Amino acid sequence: MALFDLPLDQLRSYRPSFPAPDDFDEFWAKTLAEAREHELDARFEPVDTGLTGVQVLDVTFSGFGGHPVKGWLILPAGAGEPLPVVVEYIGYGGGRGLPHMHLLWASAGFAHFVMDSRGQGSGGWAEGGTADPVGSGPAYPGFMTRGIEDPHDYYYRRLMTDAVRAVEAARSHPLVDAARTAVAGVSQGGGLTLAVGGLVPDLAAIAPDVPFLCDFPRAISLTDRMPYREIGGYLQARRADPAKVLRTLSYFDGVHFAARGTAPALFSTALEDQTCPPSTVFGAFNAYAGEDKSIEVYDFNGHEGGGPYQQAIQLRWLPGKLRAGRDA
Question: Which GO terms describe its biological process (predicted)?
Answer without folding.
Answer: polysaccharide metabolic process
